Amino acid sequence: AIWEFVGRLDLSGYSEEIRAVEGKAGRPAWEPRLLISLWVYGYSEGVGSGRAIEQLCEWDPAYQWLTGARVVNAHTLSDFRVKHEQALKGLFVQILGLLSADGLITLERVMQDGTKIRAHAAQDSFRRKERVEQGLKQAREQVAAVEAMSEEETSRRISKARSRARRERQQRLEQALEEFEKLAEEGGGKDKENRRVSTTDPQARVMKQADGGFAPSYNVQINTDAANAVVVAVGVVQAGNDFEQLEPGIDRVEQNFGKTPDQAVTDGGFVSRDNIVAMKERGIEFIGPCGDDAGKGKSSYEGRGVSAQYHSSQFVYDAESDSYRCPQGKTLSYEGKEQRHTQVSYRYRAQRSDCQGCPVKSQCCPGNRVTGRSVHRSEEIAEVAEFRQRMQSEQAREIYRQRAQVAETPNLWIKAKFGLRQFSVRGWSKVGMEALWACLTYNIRVWIRLRWRQPAAVATVLA
Fold first, then answer.
1. If you compute the radius of gyration of the chain from its CA atoms, what whole number of angstroms results?
2. What gap in Å lies between CA 39 and CA 77, rounded to an integer?
3. CA distance linking residue 241 with residue 19, whole number of Å
4. pTM of this structure
5. Contact at 8 Å (CB) between 414 and 16?
6. CA of residue 99 relative to chain centroid, distance
7. pLDDT at 460
8. Which of 95, 248, 367, 372 has its CA 20 to 30 A from that of 393?
């Protein structure tokens, strides 16, 4: 089935690189159709290593059927997986076109979800900038020393292998220093002394895992069409949260199909004021959970030891002076505003002197030692109010209840069935390609399950 499906695809993007060129020596090359089929079958069986596929080609009947009992070198397989980024993206779009033509994709409702997949790096590979600079200096010295060795001192093959290993380590350390600059831009100068970067995969980030622990990872964003759970877009990001990933995800869908979905469904990690406004502007109906702000506020008060009679609801707002008055008659003046998920929050604060001498401080703001008590006044823009009203309807709630089954199905297949809980490659670009390979394989499996040999089966029934 995989061989048949891949045979339908235009592989000219891969074939260009193996064509014979006049004036240059030719070399034997494996057909792109075979290498693609090997990787797709390998991923579908939970095999994500070029060396493992090479070994399976020696004895496994399925791999031998594909290769004609020949053995494909592991280096050839590994290089093919990560050296054709544009051709791979084109292949993914072609597959979407075939599935769309077969009626498996409608783009009426697309669900987006993020899943953390561990990077090919250990937790203890993270180093501070000073350690990285020291390691880079040593790496450069080692590269120079290896290149200066004569052939009498070492064989040519060993020398090349050592030189390559040293250069790769030097490149990773140089990239690690570049990542420190990116972290500085992201952090805005905060916690500068504790910044660390992995010397194994400098572009990986420490992220919280589903089990509550932390590990070097990448955040894989997957957009799934609700009609038949087909992955219609995939991207890999370094951010540990999903708040800023909805628009890029919709952009990838539009890039693949030339249009946006009618409806976007996400979990609460994507629900923010900016996303609600952006979806409204793009004409996409947004479905997602509304946060229980009142419940969160009550829980927060209880955790800080604030009595019920001194919750924010007991403070009186005066619109004319744009200030609040507390139950003890003290004034809280306007201090500033901030963005809080779906709302704009205006902050008001009392004078420190008023609170420090207040007889009910232990009930109102027991933890405030440096500043006075503060309260927030929130305002919702029209788009957010419309979103909240929509999510009160039973129809919207029913759609949201379907989210987990659709959006998390590809995640489950990729991790549990394909075994991709940790990437086999290093670097943001290569990781993105491996994620694309996994989603491409998943889509082909969907086609096999729903469409392969269907006409023949129908003909048999009719006969």
1. 28
2. 8
3. 44
4. 0.77
5. no
6. 24
7. 46
8. 248
Q: For residue 155, what pLDDT is reported?
A: 58
Confidence of residue 167 (pLDDT cuts 50, 70, 90): low
Average pLDDT on 334-339 reads: 87
Predicted confidence (pLDDT) at residue 387 exceeds the cutoff of 70: yes
What is the DSSP code (8-state) at residue 416? I
User: Token pair 């909240």 is at which residue?
Assistant: 388
How far is the first Cα of the chain from the last one, in angstroms, to the nearest whole number?
24
Contacts of 18 (CB under 8 A, 6+ apart): 29, 32
CA nearest to 244, candidates 265, 275, 277: 275
Contacts of 8 (CB under 8 A, 6+ apart): 98
Average pLDDT of every residue of the chain: 83
Q: Which fold has domain 97-120+208-289+391-450?
A: Nucleotidyltransferase; domain 5 (3.30.420)
The enclosing H or E element of 129 equals helix 129-148
Classify 427 as helix, strand or coil. coil
pLDDT value of position 378: 81
Decide: 380 and 388 in contact? Cβ < 8 Å. yes
62 within 8 A of 41, measured Cβ to Cβ? yes
Bridge partner residues of 316 (DSSP): 325
Q: Give residue-wise pLDDT tens across range 58-86.
A: 999 999 999 999 999 999 999 999 988 99
Q: Is residue 198 over pLDDT 90? A: no
Give pairs for 219-222: CB < 8 Å, separation 24+. 219/114, 219/115, 219/116, 219/245, 220/114, 220/115, 220/116, 220/117, 220/435, 221/112, 221/113, 221/114, 221/245, 221/248, 221/249, 222/112, 222/113, 222/114, 222/115, 222/407, 222/410, 222/411, 222/439
